[in-house]
Specification:
single chain; alpha/beta; Arc Repressor Mutant, subunit A; 2 domains; six-stranded mixed β-sheet; four-stranded mixed β-sheet; 8 helices; 15 strands; binds zinc ion; NERD; ribonucleoprotein; ribosomal protein
Amino acid sequence: MLLLDRKTPKSIIIIEALLRRLDANDRDFTYFQDYLTRLKYGYEGEHRVDREWFEMPYLNEHYLFFNYEIENEFGFSHQVDTVLLTKHFLLILEVKNISGRVDYDEQKHQLTRTRPTGTEDILTNPFDQLHRHEELFQRILSKLKIFLPIEKAVVMANPSSIIGNVPKSPPIFHASGLRSFIKKCLVRNESKLTTSQLDKLAKYLLSNVVTRDFDLNISVERIRKGVLCENCNYSVVMTYKRGIWSCPQCGVQSRKAFLRALDDYRLLISDRITNQEFREFFHVESMYASSKILSRLNLKTVGNKKGRYYIIPEDILNR
Ligand SMILES: [Zn+2]
């Protein structure tokens, strides 16, 4: 049973908003473009591996957590790509979507990727990540007085990546090998938990999910203001006249563009906006007009008169 589904990471949503708003000549524009590509690539890989789970009838009673995030007792966060909980074992999985060949040097704790062109780079080492997660789960289990073996593995999501010299343990294999790995784990670990213990542990894990915030720390001055025209690839600022946002370049009229801009404001600056901040960001001069625009959205407000601010909800795009 899937207890925690994988959602588009906040980092992807926020960087997409940033790239709409960052000047193409900004010193970090290509850096964020590359960063977004990497994040999307990783996310796609995780999705590819997720599909494998739904063809394992022999799993019986189990709980799955995709992208399990938790904070440890020291205040540091753990982000585990997949956690599988069964009566036999708890499995933690790191998913890697890598093109080229990977080799791991155990002495140096170094994961090297060699691209088909021959260039090499060093990647985040999933083995140390797994060990760190394992220690946390060991502490959780002993706190709950539950005895359950912990299994761990690294799964390669890209079928064309080459797994070179790597340690035997923890195992690293292609996504197609996940099913036989799970079968082996079921055979070597006998059932340890009752259904109620399993449920209790699942409930504990779910109730301790802490989603990390993603903060870019970009100064507001670097972000382009206004409602941007989607039709013009967000390069043109739309103008507001008599209740309508329209593009001075292509002539398109769009309310959705306005909602998108409000959502960008929420993602990049704040989910709270005052009338004055609204006028500044959206280039609306009249206080009366901006009050009208904001009140039409039926947003929740806090405070009154000068100190009043509106709260931009996460579902603003559907208003
Ligand atoms: Zn346009």
